Amino acid sequence: MKVCVMSLGCKVNIYESEYVISLLKDNGFEIVNDDEKADIYIINTCSVTNESDRKSRKLIHHARRENKDAIIVVMGCYSQIKYKDIEMDADIVIGNKDKSLIVELINEYMKKKEKIERIYDLSKQEFEQMEIRHFENHTRAFVKIQDGCNAFCSYCIIPYTRGRIRSKKEDDVLREVSNLVKAGYKEIVLTGIHTGKYGMDIDTNLESLLRKLISISGLYRLRLSSIEINEITDGILDLMAHSDVIANHLHIPLQSGSDRILKLMNRRYDKSYFIKRVSEIRKIRSDISITTDLIVGFPGETEDDFNETLDTLREIGFTKIHTFPYSKRDNTKAALMKEQIPGNIKKRRVHEVLELSSLGEKKYYEQFIGQILEGVSEVRKDGRIVVHTSNFIPIVVDDKINNNEIVLVRLGRIEKEMGYGQVCEIIKV
After folding, report:
1. Vertex 212, ends 208 and 213: CA angle to 5°?
2. Comparing 279 with 383, which gets the higher pLDDT?
């Protein structure tokens, strides 16, 4: 049978979708692209914002409308909290548990022809074991090390869609990464819902895991998908100072540059701590790329608060700022706050931050023009070859090289947030 798997949202969803694909292939199913007709459609949903909900609903409705006789499977964050909204369109509904049972659930449905719904209280679940040995659509390999979040930021629905913190056993992570390295993957990306809290439930921590991972023979590069500023320990900084295996890039969510708004958001730092810690990171790696997430238009955010945020952003000097307008989420504290900001103001503030982000990205990239950088090649579907450097600069090259090569490339110019360069050497390892 032909199966189409579609995934929305974060890197954790990408990992889980790839895991589902590997299970299906191992059990004789044929995986097809979304432009081909399939017998089964699996939609891995997202619910981090209202727009994510809208995209999830649209994808589900379209799959059902265009494929009346197909089996529709919906899983992920949207189905975890809005499963009643999709019962009419979906044959199998699961949330953020039992993705590892996807084959059994499909077989059960085909046998009984009865709707299946598996939604659990995720505050009481253990880590769902998953392991991937091959990625269908990615040059870099993602490894999910952790799930859930205990932070309860006032704007965020994720603790309700993903449950409480639970971690993959250290030995399981080490085995998965070792197997991926043996399979030829040059770069491993560690991902989770709250990655910096890895291990708090199993008597270990992220620093301990990183120390063991960078010792794996043949591992070229290790990248963290995201980490909170107050979870970058002195020990992690020491590892970064002494190991080139850890990528020269950190994604550290700021969310707001106003102390008043940070407090309302229930973030566990203030702007002075953030600025000080970034300065300490740059003392260790002066040319590191630091990117961030930012929410504008949080309830009660005044023009003074927003201007304070802009000043904070300029002082820190991020390479790129992923900016989102505040999205009101049911069952969160921020949804009950007064002074909700009108959409036109949020839109204008997003535009201002994006302009600042573009300037920062251009400034950061341009300092490397003429330099030789090391990276991993990726041959994309359109035939373009892009080299991803340790500091996350994408460099398009005309040279004919294979996928997943370690190369030295000279950066020649920057155009529209992409670098263009020439391969100097292919490094054999």
Report:
1. 115
2. 279
Q: What are the backbone angles phi and psi of residue 175, rounded to the nearest 5°?
A: -65, -45
Write out the residue limits of the CATH 3.30.750.210 domain(s) in the chain. 122-247
Tokens encoding 155: 């704007």
pLDDT in tens, 329-374: 999 999 999 999 999 999 999 999 999 999 999 999 999 999 999 9
Instruction: Label the pairing between strands 385-389 and 394-397.
Output: antiparallel
Q: Which residues neighbour 254 within 8 Å (Cβ) at sequence distance 6 or greater?
A: 229, 274, 292, 293, 294, 312, 313, 316, 318
One CATH from 3.30.750.200, 3.20.20.70, 3.40.50.1820, 3.40.50.2300 for 250-367? 3.30.750.200
Mark out the alpha helices in 102-221 (DSSP H runs): 102-112, 158-162, 170-182, 206-213
Name the percent of the chain lying above pLDDT 90: 93
- Joined tokens for residue 148: 């859930």
Q: Is the pLDDT of residue 140 over 90?
A: no
Q: Angle at Cα 290 formed by Cα 156 and Cα 192, nearest 5°? A: 45
As given in the structure block, the two tokens for residue 227 are 């980490």
Average pLDDT over residues 409-425: 95
The C-alpha atoms of residue 267 and residue 428 are separated, in whole angstroms, by: 45
Report CA torsion sign: 365, 369, 375, 377. Answer: positive
**Cα distance between residue 61 and residue 257, in whole Å:** 39
Whether this prediction's pTM lies above 0.70 is answered by: yes
DSSP β-ladder status, 2-7 and 40-45: parallel
Domain(s) labelled CATH 2.40.50.140 in the chain stretch across 372-427
**CATH fold for domain 122-247:** Transcription Regulator spoIIAA (3.30.750)
CATH homologous superfamily for the domain 372-427:
Nucleic acid-binding proteins (2.40.50.140)
66 φ/ψ sector (left φ>0, alpha ψ -120 to 50, else beta): alpha
Cα-based distances in Å from 373 to 326, 350, 398, 408: 37, 32, 16, 6
Digit-coded pLDDT (tens) for 23-40: 999 999 999 998 899 999
Task: Scan for tokens 């299970």, then name that residue.
Answer: 23
**Where in the chain do CATH 3.30.750.200 domains reside?**
250-367
